[in-house]
Amino acid sequence: MRNSESRAFVLGAAAMLGMGVGAAALAQAYPTKPIKVISTIPLGGSGDVAMRMAAAKMGESMGQPVLIETNGAGGGLVGARQVLKSPPDGYTLLHSSSGALASSVYLSKDLGYDPAKDFSPISLVSYAPSLLVVNINVPANTVKELSEYGKKNPGKLSFGSNGVGSFFHMTGETFVSAAGIQALHVPYTGGNMALPLNDLLSGRIDIFFPTIALAGGNLTGGKMKVLAVFGDSRVDKLPNVPTIGEALPGYKPPPSWFAMVGPQGMPAPLVARIQSEVSKAINDKTVAGRLNDLGMVGVAGTPDALLATIKDSIVVTGKIVKDLNIQPQ
Questions:
Q1: Is the dihedral of CA 277, 279, 282, 286 positive or negative?
Q2: pLDDT in tens, 249-277
Q3: CATH number of 3-126+257-324
Q4: 290 falls in which pLDDT band (50, 70, 90)?
């Protein structure tokens, strides 16, 4: 929105408030034009798929298209800053992950925003449980056996991630620490998660943490061994695979979720309207069924619940970063 349009919106809103119409009426009239959602999630990623399905349903319900614009530059920070500069009118929103909205506090030297204060929290959207998988030649069929093998062969195992300080890096480091083993971290840059997956399948690395959607057809046919699910409950597609909590009691993986926020200062009725539309979309039978097929979970919740999640994730991630001595980039 151009500056002139932004001023017109603010003046119009002020006039309506002066006439006693109020923010509730503004929210009721919303939307009158397409809504842009800047998503920091790579195209085709689990979070991206979930948001696009939800956006289609939201558009049908609200009578205006909800357009997804992917901008993952700077680990999501560029897109987040773009939304921060937008008017709080509900027409520019952010869909991002726990990376840009929590762990970035500790991993970026020049973040430029406070995730817990500088956005209007709207709703959680989804999460995609990762899997603990190993190459078929690793002599372990359970987490316990992997731990025992690692202890007997210190430094022999390796795990892949999508970069230093990434969710998968923190997952790998915290897991091997909890399992009492040593493993070489192999970071892959560029955001192409297929690279570490392919290297796991070929035996170049031993351990990886793909989502069910990323692993895809490799979950069957003896191409890899799935030892655990990084979630609070087992998943329908892999009913015999234990959760990491079952397999390694006491271990809690780093927070991982996808959420929608808006610029700071959005009127509460407008936030409530958008949150309601997100919730309806995520809980739609078709969307929920498709998410389940992908091993994902829709978790639409209140703005207060999202804010609490952001704050808790910042605390948890801060401890992990400090323990691992990961330096901001």
A1: negative
A2: 999 889 999 999 999 999 999 999 999 99
A3: 3.40.190.150
A4: confident
Between CA 87 and CA 56, with CA 9 as vertex, the angle to 5 degrees is 60
Let me know if the fold of 3-126+257-324 is the same as that of 130-247.
yes
Mean predicted lDDT score pLDDT of the chain: 89
Q: Within 10 Å of residue 290's Cβ, how many Cβ atoms?
A: 15
- For the chain, the domains span 3-126+257-324, 130-247
User: For the domain 130-247, what is the CATH superfamily, name and number?
Assistant: Periplasmic binding protein-like II (3.40.190.10)
